[in-house]
Design goal:
Belongs to the iron/ascorbate-dependent oxidoreductase family. By secondary structure, the protein is α+β, with helices and mostly antiparallel strands. Helices cover about 30% and strands about 20% of the residues. It contains twelve helices and 14 strands. The strands form three sheets. It has an eight-stranded mixed β-sheet. A hairpin with a 5-residue loop joins strand 3 and strand 4. Helix 3 crosses helix 6. Bound molecules: 2-oxoglutaric acid (AKG) and fe (ii) ion (FE2). The site of 2-oxoglutaric acid has 11 residues, from strand 5, strand 11 and strand 12. Fe (ii) ion (FE2) binds next to loops.
């Protein structure tokens, strides 16, 4: 059995609607397909999504020293807050000195890797039937514009890992307190508005097996994440790309760092001051990539809206309010490859707000 806990700490149940049915054909597991692709050399048409997996290498992605955020030294703290604000407005950052032991990060990657090595029959018992299942495993797919189902070049397993979850929860809350300070909100405002005592986290481990035609497949297409902050680590094989000024960048992670990016609900809460980071996962023909994603959201029942003091300052709210659970439910059931994202959908046009 894979060393992945099934315990769900703190949280109430997530949304309950059904996910579109999974693939039931011979290659429901991408890993199996990748192994057989020694023989096939090209990928089946239902995985085909032509894309250019190349990205450019940025000089550096901002690096934020988490320990300085907790510093009692006023100057140090205001410098790091300034850097944090700037990084969140632009493209995300690497968090270093975050206090999560390297051994724990490695254990999570190893456990996920072990899980993906399990026999197909064993993984099948976790195949996703409903978003509220505490553990989900399988391959995911989206519908393209021609209404054909396109399968993604990854397997995933979702679960909540207790220790990682507790540490990242506390880290996310401290980052949010930093954001609240940058936004000049009163102490306690963000905790109350987003009901952070009951914040909802989702853990996902992704496996992207080697792909014989990386320019004909995609791991995860361009998207922004739901939630407040996403934390991401991987097994050292690159594949995550971040969009910046219309270009795809390959971030190079410093040792034992965690990549953090702002997600949709920070953009909504900040009334657009902070931008949800667009990213994608590309695949390669040589090595399996494992990534670990921890999504940190508000309480699942919270109606997320732009913070009232910011709306007052800006003269209007830029986004419609929506319950977090409904947002997640929508994403899990109606996700499309093209067309507006849900965040774009919630954007209030200037002429609309005047009415
Ligand atoms: O695997 C990655 O690097 C990206 C994963 C991701 O974007 C997601 O799970 O939302
Ligand atoms: Fe993502």
């Amino acid at each position: 059995m894979a060393a992945i806990a099934s315990h769900v700490p703190h949280q109430s149940p997530p949304p309950t609607s059904m996910e579109p049915s999974n693939i039931t054909d011979k290659y429901s597991c991408v890993k199996l397909l990748a192994e057989s692709s020694n023989l096939i050399k090209s990928i089946p048409s239902h995985f085909t999504l032509t894309n250019d997996p190349r990205g450019t290498n940025p000089d550096s992605l901002p690096i934020i020293d988490f320990s300085l955020l907790l510093s009692a030294n006023h100057d140090q703290r205001s410098t790091v807050l300034h850097d944090l604000g700037k990084a969140c407005e632009e493209w995300g950052f690497f968090l270093v000195n975050h206090g999560i032991p390297e051994t724990l990060l490695k254990a999570i990657i190893d456990a996920s890797s072990e899980y993906f090595e399990l026999p197909e029959e064993e993984k099948r018992q976790y195949e996703t039937k409903c978003p509220s299942d505490p553990i989900k495993s399988g391959n995911s797919s989206l519908i393209n514009t021609a209404n054909h189902r396109v399968h993604l070049w990854r397997d995933f397993v979702k679960d909540i890992l207790l220790e990682f979850s507790e540490r990242t929860r506390s880290m996310a809350r401290k980052l949010l307190h930093g954001i609240a300070e940058i936004l000049e909100l009163e102490q306690g405002y963000i905790d109350e508005a987003l009901e952070l005592d009951s914040s909802f986290q989702m853990f996902a481990a992704n496996s992207y097996p080697p792909c014989p035609q990386p320019d004909q497949a995609i791991g995860i297409p361009p998207h922004t994440d739901p939630g407040l902050f996403t934390f991401l680590i991987d097994n050292g094989v690159s594949g995550l790309q971040i969009e910046h000024d219309g270009q795809w960048l390959n971030p190079n992670s410093p040792k034992n760092s965690i990549l953090v990016h702002a997600a949709d609900h920070v953009e909504i809460f900040s009334n657009g001051r902070i931008k949800s980071v667009k990213h994608r996962a590309v695949v390669n023909s040589e090595r399996e990539r494992i990534s670990i994603v921890m999504s940190n959201g508000p309480f699942w029942e919270t109606v997320v809206r732009p913070a009232a003091p910011l709306v007052l300052k800006d003269g209007r709210a830029l986004y419609h309010p929506m319950k977090y659970m409904e947002f997640m439910d929508w994403l899990l059931t109606k996700s499309r490859l093209n067309g507006n994202t849900l965040l774009e959908h919630l954007l209030i046009q200037e002429d609309q707000s005047a009415n």
